[in-house]
Amino acid sequence: MPFSEAEMPERLPVTRLAPDEDLKARFVSEAERVRAHVHCVPDAQAALATLRALLTTLQAQRAVVWDEAHLPVRGVVALLDALGIARVEGDNHAVATADVGITGADAALATTGTLVLASGRGRPRMASLLVPVHIALLTEDRIVPRLEDYIAAQRAQGLRVFRTSSNVTLISGSSRTSDIEMHPVFGVHGPLALHIVLIENLRGEMPAA
Amino acid sequence: MTPTFQQAVRTALKDAQLQTALDRGTTRSYNARLVAMAETTDAAALRRQARLARERALNRLPELLEELERNVIANGGHVLWARDAHELNQHVIALCKQHGVRRVIKGKSMVTEESELNHALEAEGIEVTESDLGEFIIQLAGERPSHIIAPMLHKTKEATARLLHEKLGMPLTDEPEAMTRFVRGVMRQKYLEADMGISGVNFAIAETGTIVTVENEGNNRLSISAPRVHVAVMGIEKVIATWEDFAVLVQLLARSATGQRLSVYNNLISGPRRPGEPDGPEHFYLIIMDNGRGRIFGTEYTESLACIRCGACLNACPVYQNIGGHAYGWVYPGPIGSIISPLLLGPTRAPALPYASSLCGACQAACPVEIAIPDLLLKLRRDLVQAGDPSLGWRVGMRVWAWMFRSPRLYRWGGKLAAWLTRLLADRAGRVRRLPPPFNGWTESRDFPVFGAPSFRERYAKRLREAQHADGVNGAH
Fold this sequence. Notes:
The complex is a heterodimer of chains A (about 210) and B (about 475).
Chain A: H1 23-33, E1 36-41, H2 44-58, E2 62-65, H3 76-83, E3 86-87, H4 92-95, E4 100-103, E5 107-109, E6 114-118, E7 133-139, E8 143-144, H5 147-156, H6 160-164, E9 167-171, E10 176-177, E11 185-186, E12 193-199
Parallel strand pairs in A: 1-12, 2-3, 2-4, 4-7, 5-8, 7-12
Antiparallel strand pairs in A: 5-6, 6-9, 10-11
Chain B: H1 2-14, H2 16-38, H3 43-59, H4 61-74, E1 78-82, H5 85-98, E2 103-106, H6 110-115, H7 117-123, E3 127-130, H8 133-141, H9 157-168, H10 176-193, E4 196-199, E5 203-205, E6 210-215, H11 219-225, E7 229-235, E8 239-240, H12 243-257, E9 265-269, E10 283-289, H13 293-296, H14 312-316, H15 318-323, H16 334-345, H17 362-366, H18 373-387, H19 392-406, H20 408-425, E11 431-432, E12 448-449, H21 456-476
Parallel strand pairs in B: 1-10, 2-3, 2-4, 4-7, 5-8, 7-10
Antiparallel strand pairs in B: 5-6, 6-9, 11-12
Helix pairs in contact in B: 2-12, 3-12, 16-18
């Protein structure tokens, strides 16, 4: 062995977090820092109202959407129908015509403002990727403090999600680049804008991916 | 590379555009890392933790690679092994033929820079498009990346705008936002048309057979999600043992590279699309390449394999800050490149690089996995001297030096002579611009200082006398 086997010191999480810190508030401030738009709403009813307002403002015509079974609120499909927004699915060329993607979120990491999305049946990757605007519906109980906590939770479940989902993605804000003179530009190849509808008094009912 | 490194340095120092770009780019990145590391729970302890994670992985490298292979297969993927760059390219070409691939879209990968994969594919009539903004612009310009994570660091925004204008008809602008939006538009169609996506690998987690690509733009995730075939390529050293190790490494990578808490997209890929999944590639291949790394493994240079390619040592290095990446002559520039290039290519292919450092240690201080870069550079210099046949002048010079060093008297008179000579040769500003042979190598790229007066020995003797005098006075009371 090239290196002597050193005793691994107790693992220290990377990010600071005060013991009494409000996770929701921290998540919101970190997500906004990386240019996500966070809309805090009290319940499912208000979440649908916010979604309606966003879709109307965007003048959305076509949407790629996770199956309703994987979203934390019921009524998204009915809302799209009411607004005359077509749902697109299938091959990438069709999906590329969508002007908005709507997804749930499996978890959120407070100290980095991160959303965790696992691909799976009824959960197209492209809804958070090949669309100009990504709207994620997140319930407050899905917020964990840090990446380390999310991984500990997966460890407790035998790391199942990493064996069953072909693409778990950690999304921290809006796509960006610093390639030109290290000057930050937001909105590159991924979505130009990320909206997070954060629902406070609702337990996520999504089945696991 | 020997004669050309000096020439490349000279060219780089005279290139005003390069100097502007380097100054803007490295300063921003350097400061961003300092801020991001300072706000962690304990930067020193975290770097230790990251280092130990890499050491544990390297200690079990063969077993972990086999575990990774088993788990990738269990996830429905395929694993191919490549002894060298040529084999890597042959594997990719064979996969292209097997799947009828005509167009390839690529995410950023340093391994494919090593193998010059794009040329190999183009020679087979396959269209390759780099999708990372910087890599795309480099490809348009027909250049090579000059930085591990910011490939077009050597280019100013003005030069970028001119290139996009000339090659693709973009209206001229000096707004990075407008240029970025323009390239986004060009690239959309490429993702949809591509038959195969090729990506690098930042970490490969053995216990679940998951490969991770870390990026900010979304180009990588698109490249590996939209086409029907995904080929990921990695060096053997990228494998790590556990998800807990991943957690610390990926966060230090983001903080060290760009000062972010996490990069925008961390894509955790476990095989191809699963039954029932609506999108994602139908086929997943992982190609694991050695290309000289196995030769390093087990030697005193093994810790160079711990590198996670964050680029922090480049931004911190006063040499890199002044000459940029291209002068280093190969894929990996900067302090870590000065180690990896000679080790991977063989010492004779890059003999100047171990000397392209002042050994100031800024690289080691910046490294998130504590690689002792100056130590390794010194060892490489030692190897070069032992292996090579130094010139007669060098050998005689070192003899004379050793002889003078052994005699206090000779050393004193030698010092006096040298001090007198530097005063004689100095210009009005008090600097020696040009030393005579055999010392002229020193002044090729920097001035030589004039020796101070009085000399250290004179000052030391004087202080000793004063101290003794003071003791004598005190003793009288």
